[in-house]
Each structure stands twice: as structure tokens, then as C-alpha cells.
Amino acid sequence: MGGLWEEVGQLQFNFLVAQGLKPEHTLLDIACGSLRGGVHFINYLNPGNYLGLDKEQALINRGIEHELGKAEQSEKQPEFVISDCFEFDHFSKVPDYAIAQSLFTHLVEEDIKACLKNLKAFAGDKPLTFFATFFECETPQMGEMDTSHSHAKFEYTRAQMEQFGIEAGWQAEYIGDWNHPRGQKMVCYVTSTGELNE
């Protein structure tokens, strides 16, 4: 990925800090992969405050080995869960913030809704702000694939992305452009006990 790897990792970090992420907060990184954003968040957050979920243990292992390092892992104590069905309840704590960078771009509608539903249930009464990126289109697309795939590209309208969240019990706010190099847009979901950013 070269420079894009570093660029998007730093972009995520800068964005969340601008949105209010502080070292004492707990962050959930959904589809954390090999820690493109994770390495920045883990270094910044207090020990134990980074939660990473991915479906592939090998990717996380690669991130720890090549991006984070064993010493930093030992000091910062990031927590990881391996799941392909959004089993957030396997984590030891509920986050304050969550991000899914370039995840919904590979998911069918059913799986996006499952992610939102499971995360809302896990949050319970705790305020949680969840940022997710997506490829935006003007009219709903009829995809050629009916299953999610890491190499597939799915596009959704702004209204669809907002409605997915509303159906799962979130408040939704379209953020739009956030300077992603491949043009992914951002949407923000907050629990009813949280506050939308102005």
C-alpha cells in the first residue's frame, strides 16, 4: 500500500482526534486488519483502551509484528476479538467511540445492518459515537454480488446509510467528504444517549 497505507492510517487518527477522541477514551476499531489505523490509536490511547475486531487473526498478527511491535503491545495492552459476525459482546468494555474505515464499502446491506444492530445492543445505555465510511452513489445500486466480500465494492446513497442506522436505533448524521484519497464518504451514528456533532 506504500504511502496510501500511511496516509489513510494517519487520516483516521487525525479525524477522530478532531472529533474529540482523547487518550482516556476507549475506541473500537471494526475491521482493524493489520492495524493501519490501529498503530496510531494504540500509541495515543491509554493502556487497554484500544479494541480491535477483525475476522482474520493472521492480519492482526501481522499488524502486531510489523506495525506495532511486541513491546508496544505489552505496554498498551490492546484487546482483540476475532469474529466474522460482529460479536462485540466478546470485548471486556464498551467503547466511547468506534470506527469502521473501508468496511461498509465491502458489505451487503444485510451485514451493515447486522453490524449496526449488534453494536447498538452492545452499547446499551452508554453514549457511543460510531463513524463509518462508504462509497456514495446518487441512486440505490443493484449489486452483482449478494454476499459481502473483501474484494467487492458496494455503493450506497446517503439516505440508505442514514436509514440503516435509524432502523437499528441510532441517530444518523451525514458528514460526507473527509479527504479520503479514494473518495470514501463518512457517516456518523450516535446512540440516543449521545450527542450528534454540530
Structure description:
- The protein has six helices and eight strands, in the order H-E-H-E-H-H-E-E-H-E-E-H-E-E.
- The protein is globular.
- Helix 5 links the parallel strand 4 and strand 5 (129-136).
- Strands 1, 2, 3, 4, 5, 6, 7 and 8 form an eight-stranded mixed sheet that branches.
- The chain is an alpha/beta fold and 198 residues long.
- The mean pLDDT is 92.
The CATH architecture comes to 3-Layer(aba) Sandwich
Number of domains: 1
Helix segment tally = 6
**Strand residue percentage:** 15-25%
Q: What does the radius of gyration come to?
A: 16 Å
Main sheet attributes: strand count, strand direction, barrel closure: 8 strands, mixed
Strands, total number: 8
Secondary-structure element order, N to C: HEHEHHEEHEEHEE
Quaternary structure type: single chain
Unreliable parts: none
Would you tell me the overall average pLDDT? Answer: 92
CATH class: Alpha Beta
First-last Cα distance: 34 Å
From the 3D structure, determine the CATH topology: Rossmann fold
- Shape, per Cα inertia axes: globular
The CATH superfamily turns out to be: Vaccinia Virus protein VP39
Helix fraction?
25-40%
Overall structural class, as computed from helix and strand content, comes to alpha/beta
Task: Give a short summary of the structure.
The chain has 198 residues and is an alpha/beta fold.
List the helices and strands and how they pair.
Elements lengths: L2 H16 L8 E4 L7 H7 L5 E5 L2 H12 L1 H7 L2 E4 L14 E4 L8 H15 L5 E8 L18 E2 L1 H10 L3 E7 L7 E6 L8
Parallel strand pairs: 1-2, 1-4, 2-3, 4-5, 5-6
Antiparallel strand pairs: 5-8, 7-8
